[in-house]
Amino acid sequence: MFKLFNCMHLNKYVLYAGPSMSAQNERSGHGLQSHRLHMVTWNVGTAEPPADVRSLLQLDSHLTTDLYVIGLQEVNAAPVRYVSDLIYEDSWSRLLMDTLAPNGYVKVTSVRMQGLLLLLFAKQVHLPFIRDIQSTYTRTGLFGYWGNKGGVSVRFSFYGHLLCFLNCHLAAHMNYALQRMDEFEYILDTQDFDLYNTPHVLDHKVVFWFGDLNFRIADHGMHFLRSSINNGRFNLLWGKDQLTMMKKNEPLLQEFEEGPLCFKPTFKFDRFSETYDTSGKKRKPAWTDRILWRIKSKAIENDGSGSIASSADDEDDEYLVKVIQDMYTCDVSYGISDHKPVIGTFRLEMRKKVDTPLVTLTAEGLWSADEDATLTYTIMETFEASTWDWIGLYKIGFRSPSDYISFAWVKDDEVTANGEVVTIIISKDELPLLAGDYVLGYYSSNMQSLIASSPTFQILQSERAMMEGLIPENINGFEK
């Protein structure tokens, strides 16, 4: 279990409210629905992943998370390794998928730029309402020609609300605070999306900016720094935190919110320890790893529960979004890197603008590999379909849209009308021989996402399974 560092003496600015919340708080008033977002940023220092990341993802919490957004920096990007990762999933993605998939989470998308990696996972029930996914990246290392520094981003529509997540790794060292600011502005200026309503990062209703931002604690000597940290008096250091200081003079930074830094500075540690740098360099501790957020037309309020909330008006007062941070902390138990991972948990409270799937899918009749199977799909709302759209058969616990057992192309010989029921036959040779629980998913190549899924159904064990020796023959109650 990881350690939580709080600031109880700070009164109303305490942010930790997660496990103590009642189930009733999962649904907010005024017709808003609450969705829990769990974010992680971690500079992993080219290390291989640890054996277990369950505590990092808080999978043992009694509260259900809807979205996971995980941003890593300094993933091993040696040339041979990087080429291998382009062909196969990198070791971090594999571990996270293997950990989250059995709990009902699917990797929606990811984007990689050398050592920068950004992953989005969602509960399967939300997949039809995560649409218009796009990603991009910006290099800032070596005058923009090398991707060891920069930013990667993913944007998407979540129940009709436009969200963008930007994972950055900015210039290092104490004296480069202004360069870090220049790099951030350069990333915002150069990143664009092929969408008319949100061509740039800051056009989105909600933007999360996070990563190894590399801002340091200026002026304080090592003795004062370590004494303040050891005594849990983090507030004595906030005034000299470079990002906090720059916020006073930078209008752009003033648009972003951040919870109080009520946890140990996350850099620089001796590996596999909770001891700050004992090498000859003796780097000063600093909050290099951060999670901030920005809401268009924001209004800040305190809801009395110890959480910080931000809300935004849409083009229509009917559709509001509120971001409430429940936790902002680091997990000092992980020691593979000289950085500790930072965790932020949020409630996204919103009135859904979209609550009808674009397509409905149904597995008709009984399915087994002894005969061809039938599925039907119906277009519920007009969308830009493609001849490259397909319907996949997924075993429950699948890891990503590409993790299908088999697939069939959708009807492409003519335009399908809204409400028309379309039938597709799946060859028995494409079906699994053993029994199991499955789901169908409609993948839109234009939206780069699964925009529909069927109810869970069972595929029965095939008679061919015994013939092919996949199950033992049972004779008079004994397995042969």
What does this structure look like?
There is one protein chain. This protein is mainly beta. Helix content is 14%, strand content 34%. The chain has 9 helices and 23 strands. The protein has helices at residues 54-57, 79-87, 91-100, 177-190, 222-230, 235-238, 242-247, 251-254, 463-467, and strands spanning 33-43, 67-73, 105-113, 116-123, 130-141, 146-158, 161-169, 206-212, 289-295, 298-302, 308-313, 320-330, 342-350, 359-364, 373-379, 390-395, 406-409, 421-426, 436-444, 449-453, 457-459, 474-475, 478-479. The chain has an 8-stranded mixed sheet with strand order 3-4-2-1-13-12-11-10, covered by helices on one side. A 5-stranded mixed sheet has the order 5-6-7-8-9, with helices on one face. The chain is globular, with a radius of gyration of 24 Å. The model is unreliable at 1-6, 8-29 and 475-480 (pLDDT under 50).
Structural class: mainly beta
Give the helix level as a range of percent: 10-25%
The major pleated sheet works out as:
8 strands, mixed
Task: Please state roughly what percent of the residues sit in beta strands, choosing from under 5%, 5-15%, 15-25%, 25-35%, 35-45% or over 45%.
Answer: 25-35%
- Count, helices: 9
Major β-sheet strand ordering: 3-4-2-1-13-12-11-10
